[in-house]
UniProtKB/TrEMBL annotation:
GO terms for molecular function: cortisol dehydrogenase (NADP+) activity. Keywords: NADP, Oxidoreductase, Secreted, Signal. The gene is HSD11B1L. It is found in: Secreted. This is Hydroxysteroid 11-beta-dehydrogenase 1-like protein. One of its GO terms (cellular component) is nucleoplasm. InterPro entries: 11-beta-HSD (IPR051253), NAD(P)-bd_dom_sf (IPR036291), Sc_DH/Rdtase_CS (IPR020904), SDR_fam (IPR002347). Residues 1-19 form the signal peptide. Belongs to the short-chain dehydrogenases/reductases (SDR) family. Pfam families: adh_short (PF00106). It catalyses: cortisone + NADPH + H(+) = cortisol + NADP(+). Unidirectional NADP(+)-dependent cortisol dehydrogenase (in vitro).
Length: 287
């Protein structure tokens, strides 16, 4: 019976992730505002969109890194690509970013929210000041960008793509502020999706649950603390793009994260022994 159950689950996941009707041509000429585009999954997202012929506005904190990504996008065939350096820790910045994108592209078909800030694991991440800063970057700026872009997305019947984390679905040790922000994203966009449905507004919301990002600074905060491996950036980025283009409600990469989220309902209070298998507790305590 167990063998049949797991075989059935495997077949279900396989059909869910491969039969997605993804048409790359649908992204040709699409107007995309992408945040957190200077490194990691965000950089790979920019390159995929460029290859597919999308018009891009890229934003991130570091201008020099953005300029490099913009140059690469042009080489890959992006018909239009602009950038604006922006620090999402400043509450006035989201309005400037969205207005810049609307001015340059004339509207939006996709808002891809990928930026994030990270505080070090351990005691340094526990202050109220650090938590307030992280909530502004990882949650409140997402709310601001969404509210400002929603009228244009409504006109274009576009899509919101939110790159989140497994820590927004399954809490773990030594990640309280970061996990709180990611759980807040899930609640906010889950509620917004229902509001849009009730109001018959044709804007899709795709929540993307990823593991650690490779080649991105936030992963460094927990490297050595968690034994989890980083997800390959190009593959994770392609999964995000496929989900957004097909207007899927959720994307899980790696796919087994979907199963972990389902299991959380069955095992809401894992024993300390199980948690320690995923943590280097000595490193966490020293952080």
């Amino acid at each position: 019976m167990k063998v049949l159950l797991f075989t059935g689950l495997g077949a279900l996941f396989f059909s869910y992730y491969w039969d997605d009707n993804f048409d790359p041509a649908s992204l040709q000429g699409a107007r995309v505002l992408l945040t957190g585009a200077s490194a990691g999954v965000g950089e790979e997202l920019a390159y995929h969109y460029a290859r597919l012929g999308s018009h891009l506005v890229l934003t991130a904190h570091t201008e020099a890194l953005l300029q490099k990504v913009v140059g690469n996008c042009r080489k890959l065939g992006a018909p239009k690509v602009f950038y604006i350096a922006a620090d999402m820790a400043s509450p006035e910045v989201p309005e400037r970013v969205v207005q810049f994108a609307l001015d340059k592209l004339g509207g939006l078909d996709y808002l891809v929210l990928n930026h994030l800030g990270a505080t070090p694991a351990g005691s340094r991440s526990r202050s109220v000041q650090a938590t307030r800063w992280l909530m502004q970057v990882n949650f409140l700026s997402y709310v601001q960008l969404t509210s400002l872009a929603l009228p244009s997305l409504t006109d274009s019947k576009g899509s919101l793509v939110v790159v989140s984390s497994l820590l927004g679905q399954v809490p773990t040790s030594f990640s309280r502020p970061y996990s709180a922000a990611k759980f807040a994203l899930d609640g906010f966009f889950g509620s917004l999706r229902r509001e849009l449905d009730v109001q018959d507004v044709n804007v899709a919301i795709t929540m993307c649950v990823l593991g650690l990002r490779d080649r991105a600074s936030p992963a460094e905060g927990v490297r050595g603390v968690t034994r989890a491996k980083a997800a390959p950036g190009p593959k994770a980025a392609l999964a995000v793009i496929r989900g957004g283009a097909t207007r899927a409600p959720g994307v899980f990469y790696p796919w087994r994260f979907h199963l972990l989220c389902l299991l959380r309902g069955w095992l809401p209070h894992p024993r300390a022994w199980f948690i320690r298998q995923e943590l280097n507790v000595t490193a966490a305590a020293a952080a």
